[in-house]
C-alpha cells in the first residue's frame, strides 16, 4: 500500500467516524443550542457587585478554563475572582480539565460603575454535550442597570443571544 493510499484510507475512516458521532448525537435527540445548554444570567447584588450565573442543562458541561468575563464600558472596571473549582475530567479533546455541571456562580466586582447607568456583562464560555458534541466558544451578554440612590436588587437578567449559530 502506498503512502498516498494509506493517507486517503485514514482520511476516509476519520470522516466515517465523525459521521457516526454526529448520527449518534441526532439519534439521541437534537442537541440544544448553546444559549439554552448554558444559560447565562447576571444580577446586581449591590452597587459594586454582580452575581454571574451559568445554569447548565442536564447532559452538558462547561470547561472552567474557557470561561471569561468582560464589562462594557471598560471604564466600569471589572474584577473577576478565581472561578470556583470544577470537577476534574479527562477530556478527549483538552486532556485533564475542570468542568462544571448543573451550574456555576461567581461574584464579579465593579470598580467604577456610574449610578443611573447600565453596564453590559459579557461572558465567553465553551462546553460540550455528553453525546460527543462540543460547541465553539460562545459569547452571551447581559445588560445590568446600576440604580441611583439606594439599591434594591432585582431578578437576574438572562443573556441576549450572541453565538456562532445566530
What can be said about this structure in brief?
The protein has 2 helices and 12 strands; from the N terminus they run ααββββββββββββ. It has 166 residues and is of the alpha+beta class.
Describe this structure in words.
Mean pLDDT is 81; it is low at 9-27. The longest helix is centred in the first third of the chain and has 25 residues, at 3-27. This protein has two domains: 1-29; 31-158, Sandwich (Immunoglobulin-like). The strands form three sheets. The protein has a five-stranded antiparallel beta sheet with strand order 5-8-2-1-12. The protein has a four-stranded antiparallel beta sheet with strand order 6-7-3-10, with no helix packed on it. It has two helices and twelve strands; from the N terminus they run ααββββββββββββ. The protein has helices at residues 3-27, 34-37; strands at 38-46, 49-56, 60-63, 68-72, 78-79, 87-91, 95-100, 103-110, 118-125, 127-129, 138-145, 157-158. The chain is an alpha+beta fold.
Uncertain runs: 9-27
Main sheet makeup: 5 strands, antiparallel
| Subunit organisation of the chains | single chain
- The ordered H/E elements are HHEEEEEEEEEEEE
Helix content: 10-25%
Strand content: 35-45%
How many H/I helices?
2
* Shape designation: elongated
Radius of gyration: 20 Å
What is the level 1 CATH name of the largest domain?
Answer: Mainly Beta
User: What do we call the CATH topology of the largest domain?
Assistant: Immunoglobulin-like
Straight-line distance between termini: 45 Å
How many runs of DSSP E, i.e. beta strands?
12
Amino acid at each position: 500500500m502506498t503512502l498516498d493510499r494509506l493517507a486517503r484510507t485514514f482520511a476516509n475512516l476519520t470522516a466515517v467516524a465523525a459521521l457516526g458521532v454526529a448520527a449518534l448525537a441526532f439519534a439521541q435527540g437534537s442537541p440544544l443550542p448553546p444559549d439554552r445548554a448554558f444559560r447565562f444570567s447576571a444580577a446586581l447584588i449591590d452597587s459594586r457587585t454582580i452575581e454571574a450565573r451559568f445554569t447548565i442543562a442536564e447532559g452538558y458541561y462547561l470547561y472552567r478554563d474557557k470561561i471569561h468575563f468582560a464589562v462594557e464600558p471598560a471604564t466600569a472596571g471589572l474584577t473577576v475572582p478565581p472561578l470556583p473549582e470544577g470537577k476534574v475530567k479527562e477530556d478527549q479533546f483538552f486532556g485533564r480539565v475542570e468542568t462544571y455541571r448543573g451550574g456555576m456562580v461567581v461574584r464579579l466586582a465593579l470598580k467604577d460603575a456610574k449610578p443611573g447607568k447600565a453596564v453590559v456583562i459579557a461572558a465567553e464560555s465553551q462546553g460540550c454535550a455528553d453525546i460527543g458534541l462540543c460547541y465553539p466558544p460562545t459569547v452571551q451578554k447581559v445588560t445590568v442597570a446600576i440604580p441611583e440612590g439606594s439599591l434594591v436588587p432585582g431578578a437576574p437578567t438572562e443573556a441576549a443571544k450572541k453565538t456562532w449559530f445566530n
